[in-house]
Amino acid sequence: MKNIFSLENKKVLITGSAQGIGFLLAKGLAEQGAEIIVNDITAERAEHAVAQLTAQGYRAYAAPFDVTRCQEVNEAIDGIEKNIGAIDVLINNAGIQRRHPFTEFPENEWNDVIAVNQSAVFFVSQAVARNMVERRAGKIVNICSMQSELGRDTITPYAASKGAVKMLTRGMCVELARYNIQVNGIAPGYFKTEMTKALVENQEFTAWLTKRTPAARWGNPEELIGAAVFLSSGASNFVNGHLLFVDGGMLVAV
Ligand code: NAP
Question: What parts of the sequence cross the membrane (predicted)?
Answer without folding.
Answer: none
